[in-house]
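User: Before I run my own analysis I want an independent prediction to cross-check against. Here's the chain; please return only the structure tokens and, at the end, one sentence I can use as a sanity check.
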Amino acid sequence: MNYTRNKKTAVALGSFDGLHKGHTSVIASALSLRASGLFPVVLLFDEHPLKILGTPPDEILQKHLRRKILEEMGIEIADISFAEICNMKAEEFFSDILLDRLNAGALCCGENYRFGAGGKGDCSLLKELCKSSKTELIVSESVMFEGEPISSTRIRTALKSGEIRTANAMLGRQFFYDGEVMRGDRRGRKMGFPTANQFFEDGFIVPAFGVYVSSVKLRGKEYCGITNIGVRPTFGKSKPRSETHIENFDGDIYGENIEVGLIEKIRDEIKFNSMQELAAQIKKDSDTAKLIFEKRGEKGCV
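Assistant: Structure tokens:
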């Protein structure tokens, strides 16, 4: 990374697996140091540490979308292989990676940040190392929600419970994903509600089965959507998928990627006795979705 040879950096440290409010507060600290002449950088691992050290949690943000958000925030991304550093002692990681490779003049992290082999390094050690090397350190306090620190674990729990408004409040944005639109059996089109079918990537979290109000970004525009997440029990399917009806859009988008953001869950996934019953319920869902979509708050949160 040539930029580190020419200018001291302000490095944001953390897992950044979901880019929730706690993560973005650390990144904001790094960005604020641009005014002091430091170059803001966020350190990203190529994979979640637990993929090597244990069982990785479900992803709540696709890697390419994480990069997109970070780029929009205006911070440079420094990539590193976790396998390369997982056995480094904390002091070695500090000196070889942060100081030498990244040319850090300042470090920014959360108060629960751990580093080094076995996670033995903590903020107390980091303070000592920064003091001895005359490196500035900014430790951000935990961002709270409903009396408890925001964490990716809490967000996963909310998503798996269908509590989308809670998850979005902790994320500071909509929970969203993108993926290619696959050909389905076209039953929705026959009922007057064509849908865009997407399958979840392996390792990506699948929210609670049910019907959600969604926002759909497609070809540079945003549309109101009704998204069913589940296995479509009425038709005897078994593989979870995202199936979205896009209001006021009727183009051919097979093979295209669309971005779906969930706003609110409006009902559970249920099995209907006939396509007529299903069509009648989708019409009700459509009316509900339009009302909720119109009343969205800041960043799409209800």
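Sanity check: Residues 113 and 123 are 6 Å apart (CA to CA).
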